[in-house]
Description:
121 residues, alpha+beta, Beta-lactamase Inhibitory Protein, Chain:B, domain 1, 3-stranded antiparallel β-sheet, 3 strands, 21% strand
Amino acid sequence: MPGDAVGHTGVLVLVFVLAMSACGGSEQRSCAEYEFDRAAWDAGPSEDDEGPRVEQAEMLDRCRTLIGMTRAEVRALLGPAPPGTPRNLWIYRTGQTWFEEVGLSIELRNGRVVVATAGPG
């Protein structure tokens, strides 16, 4: 019957949503527990958007760790700005998706970080 097909589709969607939320929910760390992992960052960019450097960038973004840091403090934490990076917008590559690179973009004003965003770009 046509109504049965809709009901089965709804159940499948619900199961998929619950499975996806269960997969990601347990891995989320709180900002209070977060500590920058130098080894994970130094591992370099991954070939996907789920590597250890991607995770570090996402936590730095979510926890606003870099906001207010000086240029020198960022350099000490993450390493020198990538070659060709403008003086006030540093972009560290962290990984890639099928279509674009994933990175950590850091905007500096008056020598201090005002925006730090992880994601495509």
